[in-house]
Amino acid sequence: MKILVTGGLGFIGSHTVVQLQNKGFEVVIIDDLSNSSEDVLGRITSITGKAPSFEKLDLREKGKVTDFFKRHQNIEGVIHFAASKAVGESVQKPLLYYENNINTLVYVLQELSQKEKAGFIFSSSCTVYGQADTMPITEDAPVKPAESPYGNTKQIGEEIIRDTCKVTKGLNAIALRYFNPMGAHPSAAIGELPIGVPQNLVPFITQTGVGLREQLSVFGDDYPTSDGTCIRDYIHVVDLAKAHVVALERLLEGKNKENYEVFNVGTGTGSTVLEVIKSFEKVSGKKLNYKIVDRRAGDITSAYADTTKANNILGWKAESTLDEAMKSAWDWELKVRNR
Ligand SMILES: NC(=O)c1ccc[n+]([C@@H]2O[C@H](COP(=O)([O-])OP(=O)(O)OC[C@H]3O[C@@H](n4cnc5c(N)ncnc54)[C@H](O)[C@@H]3O)[C@@H](O)[C@H]2O)c1
């Protein structure tokens, strides 16, 4: 079965391509390399022993998207990762985010809607819940007003898919609401490669550990949590990648109950920032240079998933511990710096 993976050279996309190929899917990747590099292709190939097809294409170019689908009529499913993802940048450049994250989604759905049958997996985010009223967060928790244009693109994206599925019988879609992806493939051949200053905690920690950043700022230690720092649900990217494959299989095998479904993808366990730092110090044997600073505007206190729905319905469960995920992130950082 031929699967299109948009943004397939990026962090989560590249790990998902590996899992798809391991399961025997034929993969074609579209990526415009705006936040990735072409040599990821070779590294995927080194892991799986098989080169995925690749087209460098900007999905904002509608004509090129149409042309692509004409040339690849046998695509049966799409996993749509391509998007801009920096929350802070989205506040500064909202139109870039609405253009890239919404237009690309619409163009891909327009093509898929013309097919007799197609499966579609969307990269959504736990940001849609904002600060949820109860923990852990189930899929029934209300979607709260978005804190950033980036977060809004995920909410609007889900609505676009839901509305399209309502009137498009052959289209079957699943939105996966990721919690906090981290880590890297155990081979350390692929991983997260932030351009510039990392926006996420774990790459900032590993870059500080390796000496690329001087110090990590921990934003606030007066939150109502066990040690005062914010709680998130950190999920190993390989576990997350596997969730995409089982979700896609559910659609391709026609096992879905409705033609638009939503699942949380997390571990179900929350970790504080200080626990994440401790995990780093444990697996690396290094002391991390960090300091507590004031709270950062927009940060929520706590977010971790209730994963019962994904566990029971998809038959998927995160397997890696925080330490295992951290070890893989550290191995990857060391490999990148040596390169
Ligand atoms: N990493 C996270 O913490 C996180 C959390 C929740 C949701 N997500 C979502 O998951 C998806 C993947 O995230 P990631 O961390 O792998 O990001 P990433 O930036 O590593 O990967 C995205 C890929 O899409 C490509 N891309 C962007 N715009 C494109 C376009 N117009 N045409 C073609 N290719 C394009 C980029 O070059 C990149 O390779 C995104 O939709 C993101 O919003 C990520």
Oligomer: single chain
| Overall helicity | 40-55%
- The averaged pLDDT comes out at 97
Bound molecules: nicotinamide-adenine-dinucleotide
- The rough form would be described as globular
Strand content: 15-25%
Describe this structure in words.
Helices cover 41% and strands 19% of the residues. It has 339 residues and is an alpha/beta fold. A 7-stranded parallel beta sheet has the order 3-2-1-4-5-6-11, sandwiched between helices. Helix 7 (201-209) packs parallel to helix 9 (273-284). It binds nicotinamide-adenine-dinucleotide (NAD). Nicotinamide-adenine-dinucleotide binds at residues 6-7, 9-13, 30-36, 58-60, 81-85, 100, 104, 123, 125, 178, 181, 200. Its cofactor is NAD(+). It catalyses: UDP-alpha-D-glucose = UDP-alpha-D-galactose. This is UDP-glucose 4-epimerase.
How would the blueprint of this fold be written?
Elements: E1 2-6, H1 11-22, E2 26-31, H2 39-48, E3 53-56, H3 62-71, E4 75-80, H4 87-92, H5 94-113, E5 118-125, H6 149-167, E6 171-178, E7 180-182, H7 201-209, E8 216-219, E9 231-232, E10 234-236, H8 237-252, E11 260-265, E12 271-272, H9 273-284, E13 290-293, E14 302-303, H10 308-314, H11 322-338
Parallel strand pairs: 1-2, 1-4, 2-3, 4-5, 5-6, 6-11, 7-10, 8-13, 9-14
Antiparallel strand pairs: 9-12
Nicotinamide-adenine-dinucleotide binds near residues 12 and 100.
Which key terms come to mind for this protein?
alpha/beta, globular, single chain, binds nicotinamide-adenine-dinucleotide, 339 residues, three-stranded mixed beta sheet
